[in-house]
Amino acid sequence: MVLIGAVATLAVLALLTHTGVLWLQSKFPPQGELISVGGGVLHVVDLGPRGLAEPPIVMIHGASSNLRAMQAPLGDRLAQQHRVLLVDRPGHGWSFRDDLTNSSPAMQAQAIGEALDRLGVSRAIFVVHSMAGALGARLALDQPQRVAGLVMLAPVTHPWRGGVGTYNQVMTTPVIGPLLAHTVTLPLGLLLTEPGARAAFTPQTMPVDYVDASATPLLLRPRAFLANSWDLTTLNEAVAEQAARYPQITAPTVLIHGDADRIVSVDVHSRAFAAAVPQAKLIVLPDVGHMVQNTALDLVQREVEALIATTVTKSHAALH
Question: What is the pTM of this model?
Answer without folding.
Answer: 0.96
